Amino acid sequence: MDRVPGLSVRLKLTLSYAGFLMFTGAMLLAVVWVFLLRYVPDQARMSRGDPYIGEPGFFSPSRQDLLHAFAPRVVEMLVFLLVFGLLGGWILAGRMLAPLTRIADATRMAADGSLSHRIRLPGAKDEFRELADAFDAMLARLEAQVAEQQRFAANASHELRTPLAVTQTLLEVARSDRSRDVGELVDRLQIVNSRAIELTEALLLLSRADRGAFPRAQVDLSLIAEEATETLLPLAEKRGITIETSGDITPAMGSHALLLQLTTNLVHNAIVHNQPDGGTVWVTTGARPRAVTLTVENTGERLSPRLVATLGEAFQRGTERIRTDHAGFGLGLAIVKSIVNAHDGTLTLTARPAGGLRATVQLPAP
């Protein structure tokens, strides 16, 4: 933004210091003039005394005499205060504004794309240190977000390239082998295309949750949990998984569609990553004075804390990359995490001692 050139803050502070010092000095000299010189007589008095009785002589100057002697000294003192105020104010303002120079340099480096630089302003805590610490924290968050976005873009490109490469391979095979069954080719292309569409929709949903661009209304998490479990009940029965739901009315503020997607992802993840047969999924909702909770637990293999800590990242899978009819893209829990963050909540993932995962979503109470 182009701005009209003006005085620097250091010069403004210097002039302010010098002006204040000059004003204070002038006030003190005015006090001397008003309250002292007013009692001096207008006419000079002189007495030679009487040497016979030992009376000494004296001379009492007039107000005009004292004014002639006082005025030059006043001018000299004001000039001294002006010079002292300008020099001292310039040095003092420079020392006071030195931290702003480091903050400005760090801002320019950040604008040029260097987010790894930190101010790390030393000294006791004051306004400048708080500003520098807040700026360092902002740079750290920006650096982490940029790194996450770059990693996400790379992973998304890789995932989207896979179905396109498979499609290209199938088309090349069909072109080279005219006698190949067209129906089989169409079926395989439809499967690949469907997975590409699912991945694209998941990426769009993740982006929508990150932006927080959705209307909010009061919803009931317990009803959303029942709706999600009813939708996924055929998949659970097919895999021999039992779903148990419990909880009272759990009011919350948010998007019904996003919270339903959140619950569906958690329950789907609990069904898919469960025991081969005879597993269980527990879905529980509850209300507290200041928060509401949604907990989804499942049986399954024992998970290490290191693996659990990475499950909320995009394209992170908790099991081997096996292409089954319900194989995911590693975006389920990442979408859940983004939806929770968009609703100002928290997502906690912990490994169950007996095996499996416990996912707890906590949202602010309405």
Outline the structure in words:
There is one protein chain. The chain is an alpha+beta fold and 366 residues long. Helix content is 57%, strand content 14%. The chain contains eight helices and nine strands. It has helices at 9-35, 63-111, 127-176, 182-211, 221-239, 256-272, 305-310, 332-342, and strands at 45-47, 58-60, 217-220, 242-247, 251-254, 280-287, 291-298, 346-351, 357-364. A five-stranded mixed sheet has the order 4-6-7-9-8. It has a two-stranded antiparallel sheet with strand order 1-2. The protein starts with 8 loop residues before the first helix and ends with a strand. Mean pLDDT is 79; it is low at 319-327.
Task: Summarize it.
The protein has 366 residues and is an alpha+beta fold. The protein is built from eight helices and nine strands.
Descriptors:
single chain, 366 residues, alpha+beta, two-stranded antiparallel sheet, elongated
